[in-house]
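Q: Can someone sanity-check these two? First one:
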Amino acid sequence: MTVRNTVAYAVEQAESAARDGPQQVSLHLVAVASTRAVDPDAQSELGQAKDLLDRIEVWLDEDLGADPPSNLDVETGVIGANRYLFSPGDYADAILAYAEEQNIDRVVLDPEFNPGGTTPMLRPLEVELSRGDIEVETAPVERPARSTALARAATLPKYLTVFGASYLFYLLLSSYKPLDFFTGAITATIVTALLAPIAFSRQPSLTRIPKQLARMAIYVPYLLKEIAVANLEIAYVVLHPSLPIDPEMVELEAAVWGDAAVTTLANSITLTPGTLTVSVSDQAFDIHSLTGSAREDLFGGSLERAVRFVFYGREAAAIASPRERGQGDNSDTESDVGEPEVADDD
């Protein structure tokens, strides 16, 4: 693990700068936690980040010794817990915002920092960080020889999850003859061997996934109903002699976090006639809406609430709607919604 040597390098650089002059030097050692309070994994991920910071505190005592420079301030903390972090740009935004807030002019990255899981992110992150007016470098520490990301990413939960999903999908398209069950198992095994190592950015939970699938089974009929209603509304608009459309691009700050939840909401919006998800960045969904009623439904938050129910449980579904949080053209309500408690995934 290179984080130990990265901390030692950062401490050495800060201590050298402090001893070379009378100016005050601040060293911030932070962990980036890409999670939110409604994410069922929040407690685990934030706990891991805090455990890492506890170890860093011990390393600091070792590296600074008994007589640290009086003009050297050291702070530790977790950043990113109040954002949805997906792309390298999102991580860079969180780091740059913290750097600006703390007047930091230099960022040192751990060479093994890879929050994307199996997706390499360090180099893209360095490029994104260059947007800021700060110096960016990767700690010049030796990286231990490791197996490839694909080899070490394969785990039993991934194999079981991909096999189960592939097998069920195959059977869904089959005629349920005895041969179909056999060929389905062979096909699912091949798919699992090829895709399991790269299928997830984090380890799937074999206890949470069945609950999410059960809630998804409730969500699908609901989505189909919403699509049918929206089809009738758009048909009325198209057939009306005056063609009463009111196209407009709107931005929705959605209270969903995690790749699967964000993708599900974005696709659900697109599948519903009258709205089209154009792009997603951070928590902002850029959406083209065809009519005022489509925007009313969008900011009413029914789809967002349903997606939260699928991925986070009943308690998360009770979060205020976008309109109640102060979004939408006709919203007079200013939201004061803090971070919700971690929802029980039931």
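And here is the second, same format, sequence then tokens:
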Amino acid sequence: MQIRSTTEQDLEVFLETCHAAFGLFVETPVDGGGLWWSAIEMDRGVLAHTADGRAVGTAGAYSFELTLPGGGLAPVGGVTAVAVLPSHRRQGVLTAMMRHQLTELRARGEAMSVLLSSEALIYRRFGYGPATYTEKMTVDRHESAFAPARAGIAPQPGSIEVLRRAECGEILNEVYDRYRRAQPGAVSRPAHWWSSRAGQAPVSAAPRYIALHRDADGRPDGYASYLREDSTLTVDEVIALDDEIATALTRFALDHDLATQVVFKHVPPDHPLRWQFADFRAGRLGGQTDWLWVRLLDIPAALEARGWFADGELVLDVDDPFLGERSRYQLSVRDGKAACVPTDQDPDLSLDVSDLGSVYLGGTVPSTLIRAGHIRAHHPGAAARADALFRTDRQPHCLHWF
């Protein structure tokens, strides 16, 4: 078995192998792109070959920025297109590709990699842990009245206009970029994603209406991407620079004529919408799932890159069985900044690198993983200290699909 990096000349075989692994055929892109792979970066791909030269596995990565707690930005590899032909599964192909890819990611100087997991059982063994979560909310319009307290708040000055997706790609790009820089857990959408219309709506070429919010000076500061089919209005995403803008766009969707129910595809676990309704049960939650998985490659660099909201110290004994590494670090936080250095002190916590990925963005509380038996606390106060230290000022959320 040969594992090698790809070039532009490998695009056709890469796509054919990846699609065949899922029993699909490669579609013909529309002019300028328009399919999920239109933004693929072939200089970051991995291809697995048999001894006779047949391609049997693929893995790719996008170049993203991940927004960290405290507002910092970190370059990350967004792992994608991981596939092995059914004829060659359970023969070590995936393991070999993952090891090759992690080595390349480290060589690029990326302290972390991220992915969306099609199956939750696959990636923990490679050091990834679920770090952000999302859910779907369905609202029947006849139950969507806001509570009086919310109804009595004066709306923020501004306006909403309805556009077609094809009319406003550059505007959506600008608004999303402002949003993601302030939202922990969000990843960038590079300009070539928008220009090639890659991925899913509203980035893709799929027909959508856009409710574009402008502030009092006419500057775009939020949008909702939606489509009505039969009596259901489905909202792909609401992107807003503050809660009042999000409320205005949400209310716009809920007031849409000819729809009997509205489905919001992506809401974070701490979304305030249910509390805005007069009927708390009006927003029915479903489809709760993990979304962004995080894998730390350079633990000191990753921990020092994010912001912190409590002072303290922890000694972390981190096991990375996939890469055959085990290290102990002293994490010291003062005034929002961390120093992370090797130490031989007794540990406060012992944990797998995948569990460190889960708690890294603040979307998973360390004590939850302690109670679940994933993390070992070496003394009674370790859990509370870890919870206080990894606490964030804002829940991480990612809604970009890749």
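A (reply): Looked at the second one. Residues 214 and 362 are 31 Å apart (CA to CA). The mean pLDDT is 96.
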